[in-house]
Design brief:
The chain is mostly beta strands and 566 residues long. Helix content is 0%, strand content 52%. The protein is built from no helices and 43 strands. Strands 1-36-35-32-33 form a five-stranded antiparallel β-sheet, with no helix packed on it. A four-stranded antiparallel β-sheet has the order 4-3-2-5, with no helix packed on it. The protein has a four-stranded antiparallel β-sheet with strand order 6-7-8-9, with no helix packed on it. It is globular, with a radius of gyration of 24 Å. The two termini are 41 Å apart.
Length: 566
C-alpha cells in the first residue's frame, strides 16, 4: 500500500453496535499547559477517539496545567467524565469538582510525577475511583509517602476519601491490571529501593485488600514507567537512575489470580536517559525510549530478545527541542509518546503490532493544538476479560467479543483503505463486508473500492463465546445519485489565530481536497492538501491581517471563511 495517512484523523460516523456494555473509559485524553488568556499556544487540547481515529478540539480560555501526572476517564459511551493533574479533579466542562481538593503539599501548578494519578471504573456502583500519589519533601528530597484515593459517584458526588498505602514508594509505578475474574483490579506498588511490593485488590464496589510480598532484585528509584502486557501476563519496569548508574528494564511474570509477580530478567540499557516503555496491542513487542532513541524488543518465551532501533530524533529545530518520554497505548491501537520538553510535537508508533521497522514509528509525528508538558493520560487496559476456566473465573463473566475498528486512507489513492481491527476480549475470527460485493476474513484487510460512493462497512468479531458487530458509514469522495458533492462538515478554529489554525474535515473521505489561503488582494499565500480529520495549518510566517480561506473538493468549492491572522 502507498503512504497511509498516519497522524491526525477523524471518522465521525453513523454506527451501530450489538454489545450491551462497552468499555470506552480511555476514549478521551486531555492536555494543557497554562491557558486562560485566549492565547492559542496555551489552553486545553482534548483528543477524542470515539470515531476510531483521534480528533482534536481546543479550549483557549481554560486555565489548566497538566504536567507529568495526567489521567482521565470517560463513561461507557466514550464521553469524558473526569480528568486530573494530581492536584485537582475537573469534569467534562473543565470545571473543578466541588470538595475534590486533593490533599497534600502543592509544590508546582500541577503534580510533577510520572504515573502519579490514575482512574479505575467501579461499574457495580456507578462510580470512579481516583488514585494519586502523596508527594512531600523530606530532607531536601521529594518522596512518595502514601497513595491516596477518592471515590466519585456518577453525579460528581464524593463517596469516600482515604489512604490506600502509607509508606515511601518508588516513583512511576502507579498502574493496574484486571483480576483474573474479569471484574476487580490489581494495583502493585514498590517500596522505595527494595524488592518489597504491595499488591492491592480493588474490588468493584470500591473496597480493597492490601498484602505484601518480595520478588526479584531491589528496584533502585529513578525516573521511569511501569506497564503490564496487554494480556496481563507480564509486567515491566523502566528505571533511569543517572548517566553514571544507567537505566534498566526489569521484567516479571504476573499472576492475575494472586496479584503477585515473579522475576524473569533485567536488561541494562546502553542508551541512558529519561524515557518510558510500552507493549504492543498483540503482546509480542516491548518498546522503550531513552532520550533521543526509540528501541524495540521482541518477546520470545516471556523474555526480551532481538533488540532493534526503530526511530531516533534528529530534528532539534522544533520550538523548545524534542525527546522521547512517557508511553501510552491509545484505544486506536497506536502508541503515543510524549515529548520530554513542553511542546506541540509528540511522537507516535502507528503500527506497533508489525515486526521490525514496519511498526512505522514517527518522532514528532503527532502534533497537539496547544502546548503539552510531558504527561499523557495514565490508563490501564480497561478491555481485559477473565481468564476463562481458571480457578479465579468465579463470577460467570465470559469473554464476549467487542467489535471496534479504525481505518486509514491511502494518501496517493483515496479509494484504497486500510482497516485496523481494534476489537477486544479474545477475538479469534473476523468477518468484514464492504458493501461493494466483496468480503474479507483477514484481521486487518486492505480494501480498494472501484469507485467513489457511500458504503456501509461492517466487522463481525467472533470467538467461542459469541460475536459482536460494528458497522460504520464511509462517505468516500462523493456524491449522491446525481454526483453532486455532499454537504461536507468542515470546522476552522481558532479564529482569530496566531501561529496556526486547525481545519477539521468530519465524516468525509476526500478525493482531492485543497485549502487555499488568499489575502484581500486575491493573492494566494498558502495551499495545502486536506484529509479527513484534524489538519493543522501553519501560518506563523504569514503577515498579520485578514485572509480568505477557500476549500475545494475535486475542483468544487465547499467552504469559504474569513480568518484573522494576529
Amino acid at each position: 500500500m502507498h503512504s497511509i495517512v498516519k497522524y491526525i484523523f477523524l471518522l465521525i460516523v453513523i454506527n451501530y453496535h450489538t454489545a450491551v456494555i462497552t468499555q470506552r473509559y480511555d476514549f478521551n485524553w486531555v492536555f494543557g499547559y497554562g491557558g486562560g488568556m485566549g492565547n492559542e499556544r496555551f489552553g486545553i487540547t482534548k483528543v477524542d477517539f470515539i470515531s476510531g481515529n483521534p480528533i482534536q478540539s481546543i479550549e483557549l480560555n481554560i486555565r489548566q496545567f497538566l504536567y507529568d501526572a495526567n489521567a482521565s476517564i470517560s463513561n461507557t459511551e466514550g464521553r469524558l467524565m473526569y480528568y486530573s493533574n494530581g492536584y485537582e479533579v475537573k469534569d467534562s466542562n473543565y470545571l473543578s469538582i466541588k470538595d475534590v481538593l486533593i490533599t497534600g503539599p502543592k509544590y508546582w501548578d500541577a503534580l510533577i510525577a510520572q504515573q502519579g494519578v490514575m482512574f479505575l471504573p467501579l461499574e457495580s456502583v456507578n462510580a470512579s475511583m481516583l488514585f494519586y500519589i502523596y508527594l512531600e519533601r523530606v530532607n531536601g528530597r521529594f518522596l512518595i509517602t502514601r497513595i491516596n484515593y477518592i471515590k466519585i459517584e456518577g453525579t460528581n458526588k464524593i463517596i469516600e476519601k482515604g489512604t490506600l498505602v502509607s509508606d515511601t514508594l518508588n516513583d512511576g509505578f502507579l498502574t493496574a491490571c484486571k483480576h483474573a475474574n474479569g471484574r476487580d483490579w490489581w494495583l502493585l506498588l514498590n517500596k522505595l529501593n527494595t524488592n518489597l511490593y504491595y499488591n492491592i485488590l480493588v474490588q468493584d464496589d470500591g473496597s480493597f485488600k492490601v498484602d505484601t510480598f518480595r520478588s526479584g532484585p531491589n528496584i533502585i528509584d529513578g525516573i521511569g514507567q511501569a506497564k503490564f502486557l496487554n494480556d496481563g501476563k507480564l509486567l515491566a519496569f523502566y528505571e533511569s537512575i543517572s548517566d553514571i548508574i544507567g537505566a534498566t528494564i526489569y521484567l516479571f511474570s504476573f499472576d492475575r489470580c494472586s496479584g503477585k509477580i515473579s522475576f524473569i530478567e533485567d536488561k541494562p540499557l546502553v542508551k541512558k536517559g529519561i524515557g518510558g516503555i510500552s507493549f504492543s496491542p498483540n503482546s509480542r513487542y516491548l518498546y522503550h525510549s531513552s532520550g533521543l532513541i526509540l528501541n524495540k524488543y521482541e518477546i520470545i518465551n516471556d523474555r526480551l530478545d532481538n533488540l532493534i532501533q526503530v526511530d531516533s530524533i534528529t530534528d532539534q529545530t522544533l520550538p523548545w527541542g524534542s525527546q522521547f518520554n512517557q508511553h501510552q497505548l491509545g484505544p486506536d491501537g497506536r502508541i503515543y509518546i510524549t515529548n520530554l520538553y513542553s511542546n506541540f510535537y509528540q511522537h507516535v508508533i502507528n503500527k506497533p503490532d508489525e515486526p521490525g521497522l514496519a511498526c512505522d514509528a514517527r518522532s514528532n509525528g503527532f502534533m497537539l493544538k496547544t502546548i503539552a508538558r510531558r504527561g499523557v493520560s495514565n490508563n490501564p487496559n480497561y478491555r481485559l476479560g477473565p481468564i476463562d476456566d481458571s480457578i479465579c473465573d468465579t463470577l460467570g463473566i465470559n469473554n464476549i467479543p467487542w467489535a471496534w475498528w479504525r481505518r486509514d486512507q491511502d494518501t496517493s489513492d483515496h479509494l484504497n483503505i486500510e482497516f485496523t481491527d481494534l476489537s477486544a476480549y479474545e477475538v479469534t475470527e473476523w468477518e468484514w463486508s464492504f458493501e461493494d460485493g466483496r468480503t474479507s476474513i483477514s484481521q486487518n484487510p486492505i480494501h480498494r473500492y472501484s469507485k467513489k460512493g457511500t458504503y456501509e462497512v461492517c466487522l463481525i468479531a467472533k470467538n467461542k463465546n459469541g460475536a459482536d458487530t460494528l458497522c460504520k458509514i464511509l462517505n468516500l469522495g462523493v456524491s449522491n445519485a446525481v454526483d453532486k458533492t455532499v454537504n461536507i462538515k468542515i470546522e476552522l478554529f481558532p479564529n482569530p489565530c496566531d501561529e496556526y489554525f486547525v481545519v477539521n474535515v468530519l465524516d468525509y473521505i476526500p478525493q482531492r481536497m485543497i485549502l487555499s489561503l488568499f489575502d484581500l488582494n486575491g493573492k494566494e499565500v498558502l495551499t495545502k492538501r486536506m484529509y479527513e480529520g484534524s489538519n493543522g495549518i501553519d501560518v506563523d510566517q504569514i503577515h498579520q491581517g485578514v485572509y480568505i480561506v477557500e476549500v475545494f473538493e475535486s475542483g468544487k468549492l465547499v467552504k469559504v471563511e474569513k480568518v484573522i491572522k494576529m
